[in-house]
């Protein structure tokens, strides 16, 4: 009977995952909020075996599920971005200036701010505080879909004119695509600090390899894999290999696995490689419908994986995941969403030259404030915490899980409720202007 009930609940949840995105498109409520709540209710039902699930007890499973979900989301994000990034064009780099500011200023400030609060307010050891900061700093590419671009634009018009009109959605989407890979060096620093102690013992190697070398390896391999697949899919002399002509969208999934696998074998950052691979694929034949086909299959897989993770997180919330919470931890989670991320984002976007422009469009103060506020926390934080606690012995692991789970829950609710009205208001202001 219990097994049959699980099937029934799973079917109902999957049906919700299918219908909720369209049903809630105009409502001030996001699908993750509903799915998280449903998971919490499932965890309260007797006889379902839900109480047996714990991300601490099932750390390996949670790590790999979150890892694959983030990989799929990164491919979707890279394929969805219309704005090109040419390595040889300064103007192309300038069009991404909001992204670079969020990555170079907002993310390090967020890591430092959360780590300081973890050490000072929560009383965590330095290694655990740094891990908390690194895990909670990145904007999540999975749960931030309500404030991201919808998908690739395909048109027969001049391909150079394909671009996003919405600076807020573009900045948040591109930030989410890159910051998961760029936060990894700080997770590695937390692991080294827990395992080896003094920064003097590992600092030089960390800066040279973990902070710089692995980033270069990931970016290069991702670009090379994307370039090779582009040659095959769009320009192969063998018709049977031109998947763009046949419309086979599973090439996107093959790209995820190839880019990530090769990069991890080479010792680089696979998350960064997958996003670079997706951007390289998107750069070919920008007006081709094949990009939309690949994005659609990735989006559906991402939706399914997100469903599973949110249900499991909801189940864990009502079965002891928050039992280690302390009032200082609650304070840190609230400050992250209401102070640390907004303040660091505002500093990044208002510092120095405040005139962020793309063509004739200017990123106004309201758009910058919205970009700073919507730093959604989610599946990436789960992966980093599961990964790090499997590679080193950290103190207060239950407290770390409780704090991260609370931060994600609050982010899902806060950003899920405010995203639709806020973005609608910004759209109306921009259209009126």
TrEMBL record:
Q: Name one GO biological process term.
A: proton transmembrane transport
Identify its membrane topology class.
Multi-pass membrane protein
Compartments, record wording:
Cell membrane
Name one matching Pfam family. Na_H_Exchanger
What cellular component GO annotations does this protein have? plasma membrane
- Domain Cation/H+ exchanger transmembrane residues, every copy: 16-425
Matching PANTHER family: CNH1P, NA(+)/H(+) ANTIPORTER 1
**Name the UniProt record assigns to this protein:** Sodium:proton antiporter
Q: What UniProt keywords apply to this chain's record, in alphabetical order?
A: Antiport, Ion transport, Membrane, Transmembrane, Transmembrane helix, Transport
Q: Which InterPro entries does its entry note?
A: Cation/H_exchanger_TM
> What are the transmembrane regions?
6-24, 33-53, 65-81, 102-122, 182-204, 211-230, 250-281, 301-321, 327-349, 369-387, 399-420
User: Which GO MF term does the entry hold, naming one?
Assistant: antiporter activity
